[in-house]
Design goal:
mainly beta; UDP N-Acetylglucosamine Acyltransferase, domain 1; 9-stranded parallel β-sheet; 30 strands; 10% helix; globular
Length: 237
């Protein structure tokens, strides 16, 4: 039988299911009906927490003492191999793929999806009803609005002249679509209801309700025209 480690400081609803080999550290909270997959860690300590000790922890109890815990809402499904750091707050009904990483200070709204192998690299803010496909990278400080779709292997950046000492996060507005394998350069703002076509490299701000395409990305059409084409596509016209 696979063993779990659950901190005495944690609060886990009685309906939560732990698949096995799970660590739940610090004052973590897990809501009603949530399922935590095999080999998943909840509340892993941040680098700042580790700085308070001189040597690597000798046992799980030390990790538990270092962690302030994470908060996970009700009816979530976090699949095996995932790591959720301390200071993370997740809303209701999150579904993840396998092996996702959510670093410290990140916030996720309700009814979201995060695909396998995606990484939220610290202090990332995600609104409700967001779908993030597999292999997406969101660096420190990225802001994603509500009702956003981010396609597989999209890459967001936060440093225009790496490796500099200044970070300039990307902001993605409400209702946006970010296509597969697209790259958003540090500091750009994607206006509400805009679309970034697959494979594009966005180097400047995108106006609201606009479709951009290319390398570098240029305005291609209004969102209204995109929606008309989408409807015809769905109807097989």
């Amino acid at each position: 039988m696979f063993q779990n480690y659950v901190s005495e400081k944690a609060f886990i609803h009685r309906t939560v299911r732990l698949e096995g080999n799970n660590l739940v550290l610090g004052r973590s909270e897990i809501g009603e009906g949530t399922y935590i997959g095999f080999n998943t860690i909840i509340g892993y300590p941040s680098k700042k927490s580790f700085s308070s000790i001189r040597a690597m922890p000798e046992n799980i109890g030390v990790l538990d003492e270092l962690s302030s815990g994470a908060k996970i809402g009700s009816a979530c499904l976090i699949r095996p191999g995932s790591v959720v750091y301390e200071g993370v707050v997740i809303g209701r009904n999150l579904t993840t793929g396998h092996n996702i990483l959510i670093r410290e200070g990140s916030r996720i709204g309700d009814n979201c999806l995060i695909g396998s192998g995606s990484m939220l690299d610290g202090s990332v803010s995600i609104g409700s009803n967001v779908k993030i496909q597999s292999g997406v990278y969101l660096p420190h400080g990225t802001v994603v609005g509500e009702n956003v779709f981010i396609g597989p292997y999209a890459c967001i950046t936060n440093d225009r002249y790496p490796a500099s000492k200044r970070l300039s996060p990307v902001v993605i507005g409400n209702g946006c679509i970010i296509g597969a394998n697209s790259t958003l350069i540090s500091g750009v703002r994607i206006g509400d209801n805009s679309v970034v076509a697959a494979g594009s490299v966005v180097t400047r701000n995108v106006p609201p309700s606009t479709v951009v395409l290319g390398v570098p990305a240029r305005i291609y059409m209004p969102r209204e025209e995109y929606e008309a084409k989408r409807i015809r596509y769905e109807q097989g016209v």
